[in-house]
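Reminder to self: keep the SMILES exactly as supplied, no canonicalising. Ligand is zinc ion.
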Amino acid sequence: MTLIDTPAATAGYLARLPKTDLHCHLIGTVRASTFAELARREKLVLPDSAETIFRDINSLPPDPALYADTRIPVPMGRSADEPATSYSLFKASEWVVSVLQSAEDLTRITYEAFESAHRTSATRHLELFFDYLPPHLEKLGYRGAVEAYADGIRMAERDFGMTGRMIAGIDRSKSGEHAVHLVQQIVDNPHEYVVGIGLDNLETAGPPERFIDAYTLAGAAGLKRTAHSSEHAPIAANTITCLDALGCDRIDHGYFVLEDDAVVERVRADQTPFIVAFTTSRRSWRPWRQASIKAMVDAGLNVILSSDDPGMFPTTLAQEYEIASTSLQLDTSTLRSMSLAGVEASWLPEPEKILLRERFVREFDAL
Ligand SMILES: [Zn+2]
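Structure tokens returned for the bound complex:
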């Protein structure tokens, strides 16, 4: 047992602790420096430097009436760290997507996502969400894009000794038919690195029920399933719908499950993995997220930390572990268990999972 008695020693320990990152969006990992370089190349005129734009991303609070009676109060006013001028996550994502022009660009940002995770956070396994191709990249086709991502993963596996997989993100603000179309594309073009689907974007814009057909199709084809749930909508039952009607075996976020004791009891009994992140673009909500994650841990739920959009917010997975240590007062043995729970919840095939688990235990011993 290592003696860790100073904040700096704890931070160093947590930076070296081996980790999985199971909830991370490719576009949200793009570095400000890469975005700046590609924006120059594409002659995209930005209202500010790429660094400033990313630093000042701040989503506006939604309809306050939705959150009037939540058990953990959701702050609706501005918080002290909110920038005077801000950029929405969706606007920033749109700019980043617009400067991606080729398969090489997709390979580069994928490789850099792994490189950053490796360097900053000792991430050993990364599962990355990718989105629909925007119109200007449709020339690549689904297979071309997936091969471009896969090239980046293969290079990262070679250079950093990591493993990686891709998750197709379904935009819940679009129709159920659109989601079925996307899943059909994945089913018709099976790829070793594309192992599952997820559901993202604003939860209030697309209830999980809308995607039952798409998820049923994915499940029949052997794809794994997750969904962003109980994140923006203060509805614990959405998570039950994701588990029972969509067939999810893990949940991204899930803070509002705390609204319903019966739901908490169910997900505790099942040890459903909740892949959470402290650092969100909605700054005024950060204290609420911390309080919610603390309550989830205290309730005995299977909580696993992730980085979500580390390039844009910005954060690192190591920093998320540090917040858990400093703000939630979780000790290093709890954080080690959390990192091992990430191995269990990953979508690696069982033989690779066993190897990764053994590697984590070896690395814990050497810390
Ligand atoms: Zn997310």
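Points to follow up:
The domain at 18-366 is CATH 3.20.20.140 (TIM Barrel).
Strands lie at 19-25, 123-130, 163-171, 194-200, 224-229, 250-253, 273-276, 302-305.
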